[in-house]
Amino acid sequence: MEKRSTLDPEDWGKFRQDAHRMLDDIIDYVEHIRERPVWRPIPEEARAQFGEPLPEGAASLESVHEIFMRAVLPYAAGNVHPGFMGWVHGGGTPVGMLADMLAAGMNANLGGRDQMPIEVEKQVLKWVRALFGFPETASGLFVTGTSMANYIALLVARTARFGSRVRTEGVGEAHLAAYASSSAHGSIAQSFDLAGMGMDMLRIVPVNERFEMDLDALEAMVVEDKKAGVQPFFVAGTAGTVNTGAVDDLDGIADCAKRHGLWFHVDGALGALGMLSPDVAQRLSGIERADSIAFDFHKWGQVPYDAGFILVKNGELHFRTFESNQSYLRRESRALAAGSPWPCDFGPDLSRGFRALKTWFTIKVFGSKKLGEAISGTCEVANYLERRINQEDRLELLAPVSLNIVCFRYRCDESDRVNAEIVARLQESGIAAPSTTTLNGMLAIRAAIVNHRTRIEDIDAFVEAALQIGNALTRDEHGQ
Ligand SMILES: *Cc1c(COP(=O)(O)O)cnc(C)c1O
Questions:
Q1: Which of 40, 319, 344, 356 sits at 20 to 30 Å (Cα–Cα) from 329?
Q2: In terms of domains, do 372 and 244 share one?
Q3: Does the CB atom of residue 270 touch ligand 1 within 6 A?
Q4: What is the domain range of residue 469?
Q5: Peptide bond just before 341 cis, omega within 30 deg
Q6: Is the CB of 181 under 6 A from ligand 1?
Q7: What is the CATH classification number for the domain harbouring 388?
Q8: CA 144 to ligand 1 center in whole angstroms
Q9: How far is the CA of 448 from the centre of ligand 1 (A)?
Q10: Is 396 in the same domain as 328?
Q11: Distance from Cα 45 to the centre of ligand 1, integer Å
Q12: What is the pTM of this model?
């Protein structure tokens, strides 16, 4: 019988050569990222490259890599670049990149079974438990991101209120209410939508002038709901809001949750890993009292996408929310089917990639101290930007700088239009890529300093360019 052809290389020597070339190219990309524009518009021919019909024939690895180099790599969003300040994107590291390559080679499926990759994930869980002061009985799981982690937290909270029968019977006629601030991330409300509980269940608590949840308003809303026969059951505080980086008074929310028997969830997507930095950690006081914490290693943790995490204080409740007894997932006490419970007993994903490896490598190689310093560093750079804005008459800060997010505007008539135009031109210039948000009805230029590579000089270039564009757009107004 003829040797069956596989998808492995026929010529391993040539493959190895190509592989080294690919590795060098991507290392070059990261090493020299400063020489590139942050972002550039995608030319039509690059887009058109991805309109081809399904290829029937083979192509050499080399030729496909060449397309990648020419038509994909130059047109990234730019979050590896130090000038990227839009939304909340992590910068990644070359270490995380290599670990992800190793993970892909192992092709591990972390749904379950007795394999060492799951021990790596459990090691990260142990570190995370210690970091947040959670007990050994706390459970945790890598997920895509905090959007998924928030959703899982809500489902566990539902089990806490109704027991596992909620999984078969639903919540029936129960009149429930949950609470998050008007600065909370949209994925909190989306969780209620996904769970079929309806987004109206989530009450929106107003914020104070620092964009933190107004705790008197929270208390009043809970009391009023109870009076009206509605059962309050869940409150989400935010450690680092997506708009301004505000940190809710987590201790205050924990007190309210305790008084009224609510599940206390913390959306710490951006800010929870601030626990690694002593100066930020004190701002997060109360996070240890949470019933669940959702956060992202791919933001402040600088782990390459994607690496979200859900941590639940009561591991038993977490397990009861997702355990299943499918015959094809039967557990044994020995051999490969041992090691129960499995990660798939703690979330909706069965097949799961090895996100733990790039996270474990990142933590091992840099250590918690250096990662914490990278986090403090982004806050220092944000504080520098704040000072620069305060020194410029034409610029105005629009929100207090709490962590690493700075919101401001160029002062002028038609402020919203001009500031949106400044942001678009900045992005197109390739110098810096902030994004926008709306604060108190006003459009703000929003710079989230998440990337460990961003330095003072990047801020100077950003501010100079913003001023220049703003001045050019308002020449008449300012009589230049
Ligand atoms: C980014 C973010 C989310 C969503 O996290 P993903 O990882 O993008 O799913 C949720 N909440 C806050 C506060 C965020 O900053």
A1: 356
A2: no
A3: yes
A4: 10-39+76-91+368-480
A5: yes
A6: no
A7: 3.90.1150.170
A8: 10
A9: 13
A10: no
A11: 33
A12: 0.97
